Amino acid sequence: MTPKQKVTVNGNLIETSLLPCSLDQFLEQHGFLPKSVVVEHNEQAMAPSMFAQRLVQDGDRLEIVRITAGG
Predict the structure, then answer these.
(1) I want to staple 4 with a disulfide (CB 3.0 to 4.6 A). Which of 12, 15, 32, 51 is the partner?
(2) What does residue 68 show for φ and ψ, rounded to 5 degrees?
(3) 53: closest CA among 22, 21, 19?
(4) Which residue ranges form the domains of the chain, and what is each CATH number?
(5) Measured between alpha carbons, how far is 43 from 17 in angstroms, rounded to an integer?
């Protein structure tokens, strides 16, 4: 059995055995469309062009905000 690793997402602790993985993969695995969110990874704003190269690892912190249209 693979030990669970932890990532904090929007203040909530999530356990997963899928780390390390790219930010793109993490978002998709947790139901987020990478092109429809803004992400801060370990207090650093991430450009969507960096999602595929940025690794999410045990203990990381993510703030994820969904982009919505409307007024």
Answers:
(1) 15
(2) -125, 150
(3) 22
(4) 1-10+27-71 (3.10.20.30)
(5) 23
